[in-house]
């Protein structure tokens, strides 16, 4: 934030008030001058009185009191006008948001449930440290379904990840979580799932950091619309880094080798589920990817600051009361 200094909400009040005060003061001055001219009379031998030390002291005190009264009245009136014009402190806020987008792409076939639940719980903890990053969730089996699109509404994200964790741990009350993932033939249609997740990044801007966490058992059963090779090429073209999580239950087979090549080809990393640190490695890799800071539109913030005019008005009031006290008594 940048403080630009004091300002007035209604500066016209100060201008109009000052003009009226000058006009009234001039009118009062003219009126008093005319009255004094009519009331004045010549007095013979008055110099004997005006030369007395007591007269001179009294006249000096009177002039000082009148000067204090005039200055206090001007201070009081001026402070009242400034207060009526509503003094403000103006602060220019230039907010920044992080441009990192993270898409969770989960194969929800039976063998993946436990790993998906752990991954979701880990990311729920990670969300607490986010400031502006967006997260989305897509699940797939024989077809893909978007649970929630990219968003930085962290309360909403936490609620959705809680529901996902309960569904993946077998809570029957959350069976609706899997709706839309059984509309095709077969299971684990990897290419379709990956392509859907890549297409869920809503802005094509290579300067934005895009991470896709792709968890699958890598056991294709059926004919996908898009092959996994084509989905990997789409991710690379859109600047999406894919971090793949694969069971690799039978050792380094051809499917595992193909997935490794596709994932690393996007600039991401490949992990086997047999690796105990796989999920932590994915989280660390996503966090290590630098998030670009984007400047949002500047906005001006205003806050009332009446301290100075109130203080000056108080001083002026004290001066007026002190200067008129003798006459009041």
Automatic annotation (TrEMBL):
Residues 101-286 form the VWFA domain. Signal peptide: none annotated. Pfam families: VWA (PF00092). PROSITE patterns: VWFA. The chain crosses the membrane at residues 12-29, 66-85. Keywords: Membrane, Transmembrane, Transmembrane helix. This is VWFA domain-containing protein. It comes from Terrabacter tumescens.
């Amino acid at each position: 934030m940048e403080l630009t200094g004091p300002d007035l909400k209604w500066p016209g009040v100060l201008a109009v008030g000052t003009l009226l005060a000058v006009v009234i003061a001039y009118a009062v001055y003219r009126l008093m001058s005319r009255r004094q001219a009519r009331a004045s009379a010549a007095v013979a031998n008055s110099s004997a009185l005006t030369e007395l030390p007591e007269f001179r002291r009294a006249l000096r005190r009177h002039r000082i009191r009148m000067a204090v009264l005039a200055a206090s009245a001007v201070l009081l009136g001026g402070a009242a006008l400034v207060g009526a014009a509503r003094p403000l402190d103006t602060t220019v806020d230039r907010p920044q948001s992080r441009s990192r987008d993270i898409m969770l792409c989960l194969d929800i076939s039976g063998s993946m449930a436990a790993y998906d639940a752990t991954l979701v719980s880990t990311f729920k903890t990670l969300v607490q440290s986010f400031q502006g990053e967006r997260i989305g969730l897509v699940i797939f089996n024989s077809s893909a379904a978007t649970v929630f699109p990219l968003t930085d509404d962290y309360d909403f994200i936490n609620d959705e990840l809680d529901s996902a964790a309960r569904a993946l741990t077998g809570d029957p009350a959350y069976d609706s979580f899997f709706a839309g993932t059984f509309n095709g033939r077969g299971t684990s249609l990897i290419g379709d799932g990956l392509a859907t997740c890549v297409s869920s990044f809503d802005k094509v801007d290579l300067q934005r950091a895009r991470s896709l966490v792709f968890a699958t058992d890598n056991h294709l059963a059926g004919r996908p619309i898009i092959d996994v090779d084509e989905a990997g090429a789409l991710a690379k073209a859109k600047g999406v880094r894919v971090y793949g999580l694969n069971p690799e239950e039978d050792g380094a087979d051809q499917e595992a080798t193909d997935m490794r090549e596709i994932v690393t080809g996007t600039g991401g990393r490949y992990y086997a589920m047999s690796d105990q640190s796989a999920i932590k490695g994915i989280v660390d890799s996503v966090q290590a990817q630098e998030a670009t800071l984007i400047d949002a539109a500047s906005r001006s913030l205003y806050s009332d600051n009446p301290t100075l005019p109130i203080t000056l008005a108080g001083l002026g009031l004290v001066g007026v009361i002190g200067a008129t006290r003798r006459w009041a008594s």
